[in-house]
Design goal:
The complex is a heterodimer of chains A (about 250) and B (about 250). With about 250 residues, chain A is an alpha/beta fold. Chain A has helices at about 50-55, 80-85, 100-110, 115-130, 145-160, 175-195, 205-210, 230, 235-245, and strands spanning about 10-20, 25-35, 40-45, 65-70, 75, 85-90, 165-170, 195-200, 215-220, 220-225. In chain A, strand 1 (about 10-20) and strand 2 (about 25-35) form a beta hairpin. Chain B has helices at about 1-20, 25-65, 75-110, 115-120, 125-165, 170-180, 185-210, 215-250. The chains are: A alpha/beta (about 250), B mainly alpha (about 250). The interface between A and B is medium-sized, with 25 and 16 residues.
Chain lengths: ~250, ~250
Amino acid sequence: MTAPAQPQGVTVEVRDLRKSFRAMEVLKGISFQVGRGERFVIMGPSGSGKSVLLKNIIGLMRPNSGEILIEGQSIHDAAVRNQYRMAMVFQSAALLNSLTVGENVGLYLAEHQLKGPAEIDAIVARVLETVGLKGLENRAPTELSGGMQKRVAIARALVVEPQLVLFDEPTAELDPLMAVTIGEEMLHLNERTGATSIIVTHDRALAFATAHRIAMINEGRIILIGTVQEVRSSTDPIVQKFIRAELAIPKSH
Amino acid sequence: MFHNIGEILILSWQTVLAVPQLFRWRQRRKVYDQLAYIGLASLSMVCILSLFIGGVLALQTGPVLVEHGISSVLGGMIGLSMCKELAPVMIAILVAGRIGSAMSAEIGSMQVYEEIDALRTMNIDPVRYLVLPRMVAIAISLPVLVLFSIPVGWFGGAMVCDFNQKIAVGFDSFFQNLREVVEIGDVLNGLFKSFVFALAIGMISCHQGLITRGGPRGIARSVTKAVVNSIVLVLILDYFLTRFLLYIQK
């Protein structure tokens, strides 16, 4: 395991990725490239395969066919996973409930014996302060609100000093103010570390505020990749329907 | 079923490969935590269970042996039964219910709520982090619990023999016969069995936890399977281990 150093983003290339669960094909030949330090947002309706795509990219799932390349090397090569530092912020935060907040944040450093206990404590305190959770090291994750848990998950990713960070629905189930805070944290993380970010979200405001490029995915296929402006001005009816969806309730109700 | 057996064998091999990690202090601390959880927390229950097993054994067999005029063998009979059969099997069943269920529930819930995925993304091997400490702890704890269970069971049997009017075999004659019959090898026999049972319970429970899918209902299903499969395997293993031990003692 490489010790954290000043990180630099990595390139990610997904080539003709296909993933099925029994007879149901969830990803039907996904291909795209993400540049170093780029914030790449994947948008699409529920059930379109976004989270499955993310889990394939970080190596938690194996595709039926296709390739995922980090700096041109397959993610399924163990040496590649050791060579590049990657982190994922899960939709559910996925904090280890048997550990305290501080232990969660320092877990990567402690398990890989990259720093001594005192140094880890100092790093954890600093990172928690960065995400606005100063002094909460000894709290249990279950004592925190959903938004705070997400910020702890971001702090855990920060400690890794990732070269690639994946966000799965980072603002889901959060109130608008907390969603803004999380969005800002994501931008800061990207700017501070230069890490490549791949963000899966439904949240149009978050996507338009953070993305360098957006990929629209529908029924397991990418229907558009472009800048925010290109997505906004797309004439594709599915894209338009998704980005302009509003709840219209007649006044009489 | 064969798929599960294959997965358990692979998991066992991965656990063996992770054993050198025990030289790390952090890893040993996890083992100590699990030892306290499995061993210390179960000790009082083991003692109560063993006391009553010994007592019931005396109560069931004592009057019959008295009737046939061979009550003097009660000490040896209860002594052998406890150390070779009842203590290892009954404590293994207790541990399967108490600890196996907790192991599969904890790991299962970590699987369902993506905590294990989070470990993998941090390049932390779940076998090393979760399975190894539990396996080492249960492999140490169960034989130690059996070591406590055996004398407590003897004591329970001796009490019933002494205080029950129909049996009326005193403490001294009970333990004198026990010393004549029971050898250190018989105790080691029980400890060896319990060690094998511990590996089976630990591996089945951890495996069930790791393959948990589908929310709270999936966790409940994993816990049930872990406990039932562990108990069934303990009883099957008991037969084959007994045959094996009888064969090598010849």
